[in-house]
């Protein structure tokens, strides 16, 4: 088992513990749907502000150090989380969590790309996601029961898992010092402004990159609604809090199966990436409408699919973008992609928080489905403009100092 699989397995255990219950915990602490939406917006605004600086930090100081800091701040987040009944404490937890996510966003993928052939990168991402999901399934089945027994325990377990991950990355860093020194010799440092400016220039100069990044904005806007309100929705239609863990586990199993097939078909997906993304978003629209208008059983199946869909589309998107990102700015460029997603999630918290309070969760889901249509149109437009051979131009996306 390689270092990526070990860290992904542990991270999956942590996510499985907190993901099914953290919004319910906010609700139990007295935060209503609008407040939860605003807190989510605080998280995304902070993440938006942190994304580019942490990306340039990773490019200049090494992705492994960025990941190490992410684990430290993740541990701090979940140690604070049991005490978020006070609003300002909750806001601090959200900001620290955002910093942790920004530090690992793009850094983990960049590290993986450094040791993986380009043609195998998306497949490696999918296989790694399978390990993550298998671990999520294990702990998500227990999460609701542990939370019912003691509301603090799941968050304490999460903090302990991140402490173990920190110990592993420190050991790995110690044994990896020579590689890091060689990378520093071969890669001269640039300022934050230089790296940021050149990264944005790459994005705006190449239509394929720009369209896929913009499509991610609308996808984030829509999928964030599901992630934010699936728990209150299932409670609203008569399910218990303990049942939420089982839904997360079902979503994990579904994602694991779908990732298995997409990894098997990665060569076909590599040749038809944009068509694959159009299919994913189209199916998601159908699932969201099924959730809004379907029977209770249909809603459960649809929610399970929607919880798994980002695990399917993210490796496809990152594998596609990795073809066009030069190595010297890769972490920052992945962060730029994440920034557009964070911006979408910020607007999602404001727009859909108001819709949820005024019109209910079902109406919120319907509007979210409509916002996926621009993503499909952007992928289609990109597929129609394939006259430039970007794979040949990728290595020319560099700049003179």
TrEMBL record:
GO terms for molecular function: transmembrane transporter activity. Pfam families: MFS_1. Its main location: membrane. InterPro entries: MFS, MFS_DHA3_Transporter, MFS_dom, MFS_trans_sf, Tet-R_TetA/multi-R_MdtG-like. It is found in: Cell membrane. The chain crosses the membrane at residues 86-108, 129-147, 153-173, 209-231, 243-262, 283-309, 329-352, 359-380. SUPFAM superfamilies: MFS general substrate transporter. PROSITE patterns: MFS. It is a multi-pass membrane protein. Coiled coil: none annotated. Keywords: Membrane, Transmembrane, Transmembrane helix, Transport. It comes from the Bacteria. PANTHER family: PERMEASE, MAJOR FACILITATOR SUPERFAMILY-RELATED, TRANSPORT PROTEIN-RELATED. This is MFS transporter. The lineage of its organism: Bacteria, Bacillati, Bacillota, Bacilli, Bacillales.
């Amino acid at each position: 088992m390689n270092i990526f699989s070990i860290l992904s397995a542990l991270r999956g255990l942590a996510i499985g513990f907190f993901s099914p219950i953290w919004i319910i915990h906010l609700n139990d602490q007295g935060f209503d749907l609008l407040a939860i939406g605003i807190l989510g917006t605080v998280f995304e605004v902070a993440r938006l502000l942190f994304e580019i600086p942490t990306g340039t930090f990773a490019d200049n100081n090494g992705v492994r150090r960025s990941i190490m800091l992410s684990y430290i701040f993740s541990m701090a987040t979940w140690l604070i989380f049991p005490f978020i009944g006070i609003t300002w404490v909750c806001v601090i937890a959200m900001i620290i969590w955002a910093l942790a996510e920004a530090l690992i966003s793009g850094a983990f993928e960049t590290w993986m790309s450094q040791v993986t052939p380009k043609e195998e990168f998306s497949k490696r991402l999918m296989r790694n996601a399978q390990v993550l999901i298998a671990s999520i399934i294990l702990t998500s089945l227990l999460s609701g029961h542990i939370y019912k027994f003691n509301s603090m325990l799941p968050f304490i377990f999460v903090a302990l898992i991140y402490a173990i991950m920190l110990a592993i990355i420190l050991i790995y860093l110690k044994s990896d010092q020579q590689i890091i020194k060689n990378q520093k010799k071969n890669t001269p440092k640039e300022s934050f402004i230089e790296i940021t400016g050149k990264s944005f220039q790459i994005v705006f100069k190449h239509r394929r990159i720009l369209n896929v990044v913009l499509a991610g904005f609308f996808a984030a806007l829509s999928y964030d609604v599901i992630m934010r309100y699936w728990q209150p929705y299932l409670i609203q239609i008569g399910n218990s809090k303990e049942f939420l863990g089982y839904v997360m586990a079902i979503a994990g199993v579904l994602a694991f199966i779908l990732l298995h097939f997409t990894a098997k078909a990665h060569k076909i997906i590599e040749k038809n990436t944009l068509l694959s993304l159009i299919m994913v978003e189209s199916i998601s629209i159908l699932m969201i409408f099924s959730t809004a208008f379907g029977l209770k059983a249909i809603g459960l199946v649809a929610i399970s699919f929607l919880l798994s869909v980002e695990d399917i589309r993210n490796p496809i998107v990152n594998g596609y973008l990795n073809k066009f990102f030069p190595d010297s700015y890769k972490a920052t460029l992945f962060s730029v992609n994440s920034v557009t997603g964070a911006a979408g999630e910020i607007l999602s918290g404001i727009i859909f928080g108001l819709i949820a309070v005024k019109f209910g969760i079902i109406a919120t889901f319907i509007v979210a489905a409509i916002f996926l249509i621009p993503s499909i149109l952007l992928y289609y437009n990109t597929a129609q403009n394939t006259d430039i051979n970007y794979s040949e131009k990728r290595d020319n996306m560099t700049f003179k100092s």
